[in-house]
Write a structure and sequence with these properties.
The complex is a heterodimer of chains A (263) and B (400).
Chain A: H1 2-14, H2 20-52, E1 66-71, H3 81-90, E2 105-111, E3 118-124, H4 132-136, E4 142-144, E5 150-152, H5 162-166, E6 173-174, E7 193-194, H6 200-204, H7 211-219, E8 224-228, H8 235-243, E9 258-261
Helix pairs in contact in A: 1-2, 3-7
Chain B: H1 14-40, H2 55-70, H3 72-78, H4 89-109, H5 117-122, H6 129-152, H7 160-183, H8 196-223, H9 229-259, H10 264-273, H11 276-298, H12 306-333, E1 343-346, H13 360-383, H14 393-396
Helix pairs in contact in B: 1-13, 2-4, 2-7, 2-8, 2-12, 2-13, 3-4, 3-7, 4-6, 4-13, 6-7, 7-8, 8-9, 8-12, 9-11, 9-12, 10-11, 11-12
The chains are: A alpha+beta (263), B mainly alpha (400).
Chain lengths: 263, 400
């Protein structure tokens, strides 16, 4: 505020010899401007202080790389509990048949036309190590956390949808409507792009699982394993070591964090 | 009276004001449509999570591509030394800036968060071709503005050739960038090819020149200033070459795709059974936008007819719009191949050809962008000396 006062005083001094009537008008105008900019800036400063007062308890580290392993052979065709759990966790609830509602995870049926063999599997953001969505995002709103989770910064996403054009997995959705009843743990934004955030809220809270993996376990299918790909002792790493796992569109060289067995 | 003299258009006539108000209203309706889409959300547009870029993007890319092409008229004189084109240079630069402004206005107003434009202007991810384009577009305004200054201020004319050369190189890079927005998308079958960048450059040549010819002839007709056959026929022939060159690139794009088996499905979609996209390709892009204008330009019966030339230019613009519509919307309508060679289905419309019906709001926004372009040109030619008082043959062929 001192700087602003100083500036205000300087402006007044420079005007001493000028016409008094005009000066008064100028003073009122400049004073109004300074006041208005003060009013505009102050809430931001206050918010910043409030936010800075609550640092995350634990810093995100690249020592871990969170990932998921889907065992397609254990994924039941008629089960979509993972989808329901995701929708409940993040407050999505897409209407059936809607072309504009967000779907962070969906059940995909993959059929080989030559044999007729069909499989059902969950499809979501594959949390690539080299994500095309992050590459193309003009503002850097699409970003990858140190622990491998690909996220959208809802404060800097301008809603250009270039990431949706670039994603090979059709994993992203654009928020087409005004949102109601948002969940505090999963903030979303009209006019922004969003996708599976690997339940970053749960991971940061130390739950060490995702809503979809949790729901899949509850049904007894145990088709989704969540864990640290960097830890050779983790369940996901031992399963991958023992039975292998495929990346979808491995030809693109994206090194996905979500792997599939039984494809 | 062989001297080249420039003069602003008379802005006092009622028909000038009628034009200005008409364009202003269309531009305002466009902006209000964008505002309506922002308030209600993009749910009121025809776009969805399958077709994420729609009509606004077709208009925006069309205008941006036309912008770099419109500048060619000036480059032909400054860079390639064809003095006949010199009198046309100033309008060329003005039209280029106006087209880019119109295109960018549409692009920005369609953003999910247009209020965050300042974020796009200040926060860059330099790996993104989109971010490069933001710099290329703002640079284009500055460079073409300087080039315009060089052409219009006698004291600066010594720099005109260099400014023109720099602007020409910049515009080539800019259109390469616009084409690469699609060319860099490896995930979608219709894109993912380096062919798109040179094809966009050639499209810009044809669309930009067609736009220029229409604006120029309309301005001269409007202001009752003379235009000789010499310059008109030069531009007519040039347009013919550009149309043929675009068709060559289209042919190479499809033939190279057809060579690779993995692209057969998308080619079959675009060329044979893609419904509206196939029809647009053959009837509008190729026939109306390519073959008919070529016939109008080169057929002996219409070779010297200005109306035929104007018709050819109009058809080139319509064909160009269809071409960009097929690239942008058609490229998205064809399903993403998450599992190549497999049939996939889901509640998110995987494996299905996506339908798209543009809403009135998108179309109004698009025309708003065109109106912004024409508004800038209309105001520009009335306040500064952009247009020569005569383009009669003796003025055009006069060598200084």
């Amino acid at each position: 505020m001192n700087d602003i006062n100083k500036k205000y005083t300087l402006l007044n001094k420079s005007d001493v010899n000028a016409n008094q009537g005009v000066n008064q008008g100028k003073r009122t105008f400049i004073g109004g401007l300074v006041g208005a900019s003060g009013l505009a800036v102050a809430p931001g400063v206050m918010l910043y202080q409030t936010a800075a007062a609550k640092p995350l308890e634990q810093a995100v580290s690249s020592a871990v790389r969170w990932g998921m392993l889907v065992n397609v052979n254990q994924c039941a065709e008629d089960c979509d509990d993972c989808v329901t759990a995701c929708n409940d966790e993040h407050g999505l609830w897409p209407k059936e048949g809607s072309t504009t509602d967000s779907q962070w995870i969906r059940k995909l049926t993959v059929k080989d036309p030559s044999t007729g063999n069909a499989k059902s599997l969950p499809m979501m953001c594959q949390h690539c190590e080299n994500p095309p969505c992050v590459d193309v995002c003009p503002t850097g709103a699409s970003f990858k956390r140190e622990d491998g989770i690909v996220l959208v910064n809802m404060h800097t996403c301008i809603g250009c949808r270039y990431c949706m054009m670039a994603c090979p997995y059709k994993a992203r959705s654009f928020v087409h409507e005004t949102l109601e009843n948002q969940l505090p743990d999963s903030p979303r934004g009209k006019g922004c792009v969003e996708s599976c955030n690997m339940c970053v809220n749960k991971i940061d809270a130390g739950d060490n699982t995702t809503a979809c993996a949790e729901a899949c376990s509850k049904t007894g299918h145990e088709a989704i394993t969540f864990g640290d790909l960097n830890d050779p002792e983790s369940d996901i790493s031992t399963q991958l070591k023992a039975h292998g796992g495929n990346q979808i569109r491995a030809d693109l060289g994206l090194n996905t964090g979500v792997r599939y067995q039984g494809l | 009276m062989d001297t080249l003299r420039y003069g602003a258009l008379d802005a006092r006539s009622p028909k000038y004001w009628a034009l200005l108000i008409g364009l202003g209203l269309i531009a305002m309706i466009g902006v209000l449509s964008a505002h309506h889409m922002e308030v209600e959300g993009h749910v009121i547009s025809g776009m969805n999570n399958q077709i994420v870029w729609g009509m606004p993007h077709v208009f925006a890319v069309f205008l941006i591509v036309a912008a770099s092409g419109a500048l060619n008229v000036a480059s032909i004189s400054s860079v390639f030394g064809k003095t006949e084109y010199k009198p046309l240079g100033r309008l060329s630069a003005l039209l280029a800036i106006a087209l880019l402004a119109g295109g960018l206005a549409v692009l920005v107003l369609d953003l999910g968060r247009p209020d965050r434009l300042i974020v796009a202007m200040t926060t860059y991810n330099f790996k993104s071709i989109f971010a490069w384009n933001i710099l290329l577009y703002t640079g284009f305004f500055g460079i073409v503005g300087f080039y315009m200054w060089c052409m219009m201020d006698h004291g600066m004319q010594k720099f005109s050739k260099y400014a023109g050369l720099f602007a020409f190189i910049w515009r080539l890079i800019l259109t390469t960038g616009t084409g690469s927005i699609f060319g860099f998308l490896v995930a979608r079958s219709a894109y993912d090819t380096a062919m798109l960048a040179p094809m966009f450059i050639m499209m810009s040549f044809a669309i930009g020149l067609a736009f220029y010819i229409i604006v120029m002839l309309a301005s001269y007709q409007w202001s009752e200033r003379p235009v000789g056959d010499l310059i008109v026929n030069r531009m007519r022939n040039l347009l013919g070459i550009f149309i043929a060159a675009v068709m060559y690139f289209v042919a190479v794009y499809h033939v190279t795709n057809l060579y690779a088996t993995e692209h057969h499905a998308v080619e079959k979609f675009l060329l044979v059974d893609g419904g509206i996209f196939t029809q647009l390709f053959w009837y509008v892009q190729i026939l109306l936008g390519g073959i008919v204008p070529l016939a109008l330009i080169y057929a002996p019966q219409t070779r010297n007819c200005r109306r035929a030339l104007l018709a050819a230019c109009g058809l080139v613009l319509i064909g160009g719009m269809a071409h960009i519509y097929i690239i942008i919307v058609g490229g998205q309508a064809f399903p993403i191949e998450i599992f190549p060679g497999m049939e996939i289905s889901s509640s998110f419309f995987d494996g299905e050809v996506s339908a798209y019906t543009p809403s009135i709001w998108e179309i109004l926004l698009g025309f708003g962008g065109v109106a912004i372009t024409l508004l800038l040109v209309t105001v520009g030619v009335a306040i500064l000396d952009f247009l020569p008082e005569s383009l009669a043959d003796n003025i055009v062929s006069y060598k200084k």
